[in-house]
Structure formats: structure tokens, C-alpha cells
């Protein structure tokens, strides 16, 4: 896959993507800067847990509720250069935000490439309050789904299920309940499904 898609999968869950990564013990040191989100352990080291599936952090879908952390969004990353983004990941900018013991230079560069070129403003596609699609094209979506997704997920989207919020849910349920996660993983896939076609790679 491209560096953009690899970076997106690392952003989602590097613990599943990076082979032989050194797993940290306990919470990410930066986690103590917030008190709302009660997730603990290895998940506190995942980028998405702090910055959201919509990349908007405190200004996006994670602005309130149990997943809220108050950490900033990342949409402005597209205007930053490689060096400044690497410094944000290697502990130079903030010593508590250091991923160099888990991610090698190629991994860090993939994340930077994703941040610079793979982010989109989900507010253009998903209403942040109602979670409804904005300006969707049902017939086009149906055609794309039948061509690319139905063989694994079934014609009605119930063939494969996912662990979500403690229960097994079908694809349609995920799309309705967490459209931001759905959109990210439709674009970039997940390490747990290595053969999944990636929307980003398909254009």
C-alpha cells in the first residue's frame, strides 16, 4: 500500500500495523493532561484516540462525550513541513509525545505523509450533529459498494461484523453510529483486514 494508507493505518492502530513494535507499558504520559476519557493502557497511545476519526480533536466528533479528550485537531497539518511534523512525533516539540521507541523512521514518515496529504475535512461530508451524510449520491454509492464491497460484506452489509462499543455490529450499523470511523476505514482500511480494497488507493 502507499505511504499515505500505511500512515493512516498507523494513525488508526499502530499496534496492529507495525511488526515487532515495542509495546509501551501503562498510559501515554500525555494522557494525564485530560480527565474525561477513561480509556487506559495501550489504547492511549493510538493517535485516533486523542485526535479522532475526523482528525479534528476537541473541535470535532470527540468534542463532547466519553471519548472527548480536549486534545487538538490535525487538519492544519497539510500546511506544515516534514521537519515540524516529525518533531511533533519524536518528542522534540513535546517530550511526552514521543513515539520513536515504537515507530521507526519509515513509520514516522508514513504518518507525516498521511497528515500532509490524506486528511479531509469530514464536516464537508458528515453532519457533526445528526451524523447524516451531506450531499451523498445513493446510486453511485450502491454501484461502488456492489463492485468492491459486497463480495465480503454481503449485499445487505451483514455478512461481516465488527466489534464496536462492546458488541458485534454490521457494516451499516457502524456507518450510522460512527460515520467518521466508517469513512476513515473505507478510505484506508485496517490492518486486521489486509486484503480489503482501499478507497484511497482506488481513487
Structure description:
The protein is mostly helical. The protein has 8 helices and 2 strands, in the order H-H-H-H-H-H-E-E-H-H. The chain has helices at residues 3-17, 47-51, 82-89, 105-117, 138-148, 150-153, 171-177, 179-188; strands at 161-164, 167-170. It has a two-stranded antiparallel sheet with strand order 1-2. Helix 1 (3-17) packs across helix 4. The longest helix has 15 residues, at 3-17. It is globular and about 50 Å long. The chain starts with a helix and ends in a 15-residue tail after the last helix. The model has no long low-confidence stretch (mean pLDDT 92).
What is the first-to-last residue Cα distance? Answer: 13 Å
Share of residues in strands: under 5%
Which residues sit in consecutive blocks of at least 5 with pLDDT less than 50? none
The strand order across the widest sheet is 1-2
Summarize the main sheet: 2 strands, antiparallel
Query: What overall form do the CA principal axes indicate?
Result: globular
Structural class: mainly alpha
What is the N-to-C succession of helices and strands?
HHHHHHEEHH
Please, what is the average pLDDT? 92
Number of E-type strands: 2
Question: Which range best describes the helical content: under 10%, 10-25%, 25-40%, 40-55%, 55-70% or over 70%?
Answer: 25-40%
Helical segment tally?
Answer: 8
Radius of gyration: 17 Å
Amino acid at each position: 500500500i502507499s505511504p499515505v494508507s500505511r500512515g493512516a493505518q498507523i494513525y488508526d492502530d499502530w499496534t496492529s500495523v507495525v511488526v515487532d513494535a515495542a509495546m509501551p507499558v501503562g498510559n501515554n504520559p500525555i494522557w494525564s493532561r485530560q480527565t474525561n476519557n477513561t480509556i487506559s493502557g495501550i489504547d492511549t497511545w493510538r493517535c485516533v484516540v486523542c485526535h479522532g476519526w475526523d482528525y479534528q480533536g476537541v473541535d470535532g466528533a470527540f468534542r463532547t462525550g466519553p471519548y472527548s479528550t480536549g486534545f487538538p485537531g490535525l487538519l492544519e497539518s497539510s500546511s506544515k513541513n516534514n521537519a515540524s511534523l516529525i518533531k511533533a512525533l519524536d518528542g522534540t516539540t513535546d517530550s511526552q509525545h514521543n513515539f520513536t521507541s515504537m515507530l521507526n523512521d519509515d513509520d514516522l514518515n508514513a504518518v507525516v505523509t498521511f497528515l500532509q496529504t490524506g486528511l479531509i475535512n469530514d464536516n464537508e461530508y458528515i453532519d457533526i450533529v445528526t451524523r447524516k451524510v451531506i450531499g451523498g449520491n445513493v446510486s453511485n454509492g450502491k454501484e461502488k459498494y456492489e463492485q468492491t464491497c459486497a463480495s465480503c460484506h454481503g449485499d445487505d452489509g451483514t455478512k461481516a461484523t465488527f466489534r464496536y462499543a462492546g458488541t458485534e455490529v454490521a457494516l451499516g450499523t457502524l456507518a450510522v453510529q460512527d460515520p467518521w470511523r466508517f469513512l476513515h476505514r473505507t478510505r484506508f482500511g485496517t490492518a486486521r483486514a489486509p486484503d480489503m480494497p482501499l478507497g484511497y488507493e482506488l481513487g
